[in-house]
Amino acid sequence: MSVLEMMSNKPASFTGRITLVTGGGSGIGRAVALGFAREGATVIVAGRGHGPLEETVKLIEAEGGRAEAITVDVTDTADVASLVQRIVDRHGRLDIAVNNAGTFTFGEVADLPESEWTRVFEVNTTGVFLAMKHQIAAMRQAGGGVIVNVSSNIGAHKRIPGLGAYAASKAAVTALSRTAALECVGDGIRVNTVSPGPHDTPMSLHPGESVAERAVRMKEQNPAGRVGSLDEITSAVLWLASDGAGFAVGQDLVLDGGASA
User: Fold this and answer.
1) Of 36, 121, 166, 239, which is the active-site residue?
2) 218-245: average pLDDT
3) Spacing of C-alpha 34 from chain mean position
4) DSSP symbol at 163
5) How does DSSP classify residue 158?
6) How far is CA 136 from each of CA 31, 133, 225, 253, 254, rounded to the nearest angstrom?
7) What single DSSP character describes residue 261?
8) What percent of the chain has pLDDT over 70?
9) Would you state the pLDDT for residue 10?
10) pLDDT tens-digit readout, 85-113
């Protein structure tokens, strides 16, 4: 049973909602974009790679949905501002934003190159800051909206040696999101976060590891005995964005099968 089914007697409907998903060219971002489109939203998928974004659009359109691909560098404030303005000019408003674009690095603190630290923070933390900065401005003009930021269970909830930069960047996303939630709720804008653990994406595979080998490892490492499915995280994001979650403000929904419990 999905989170949406558990939280509501009927599936959330986003018919007519204008929805932006960053990092929408693959993995969680693609799955979330498809989920919103299946519920009737018009979806704008954004990211650096035009080819993967167009593939997401084709998948949505093949199911009868409406989507558009726009390339963006989330670390460039002018680029992000242009993205949001383009959406507002074309559709009149921005109702929902899912800030999912992110990157990963591995290295112990004493050995991590400073350039890697900077790169991870620019994408994972500054990228979310810039996205919210411009999204909130547009949503305030429209009278409200919803933002869901994708963080990680590694950060505010769990630490792993070798992932210090990633953990710090994602913990910052959680803190930033909660602060913005308090600042914006009076304007009719809800900000929440989801923090996935290992899900069925390439990021959860160790170098050279097969899906079957990952399954064996997860049986030993994760209390739930498996990775999460993309449907499960999509359901959680859609619920947080739905009217049924109207009293959820500044929350960080951890989806990791009990790994950080």
Assistant:
1) 166
2) 95
3) 13
4) -
5) B
6) 24, 6, 39, 21, 24
7) -
8) 95
9) 53
10) 999 999 999 999 999 999 999 999 999 99
132 is annotated as an active-site residue: no
Query: Residue 135: how many CA atoms within 13 Å on its side-chain side?
Result: 30
Q: What is the pLDDT of residue 212?
A: 92
List of E strands, 74-114: 96-99
pLDDT of residue 206: 85
Give the span between the Cα atoms of 144 and 95, in whole angstroms.
7
DSSP secondary structure string for all residues of 46-57: EES-HHHHHHHH
Q: Using alpha carbons only, how large is the chain's radius of gyration in Å?
A: 17
Domain ranges of the chain: 10-254
CA–CA separation, 69 vs 83, rounded Å? 11
Q: Which CATH superfamily is domain 10-254 in?
A: NAD(P)-binding Rossmann-like Domain (3.40.50.720)
Cα–Cα distance measured from residue 226 to residue 206, given in angstroms and rounded to the nearest whole number: 15
How many Å apart are CA 86 and CA 212, to the nearest integer? 43
Contact 129, 75 (CB under 8 A): no
Q: How far is CA 63 from CA 59, 66, 253, in A?
A: 7, 9, 29
Place of tokens 């996205």: 131
Centre a 10 Å sphere on the Cβ of residue 259 and count the other Cβ atoms it contains: 18
Residue 11 pLDDT: 53
Does residue 1 have a pLDDT over 50?
A: no
Q: Any residues with CB less than 8 A from the CB of 175 and at least 6 apart, and which?
A: 156
Residue entry with tokens 């709720």:
185
Amino acid at 257: G
Q: In 92-229, which ranges are continuous DSSP H helix?
A: 114-121, 127-142, 164-184, 211-221
Name which of 31, 145, 52 is nearest 97 in CA terms: 145
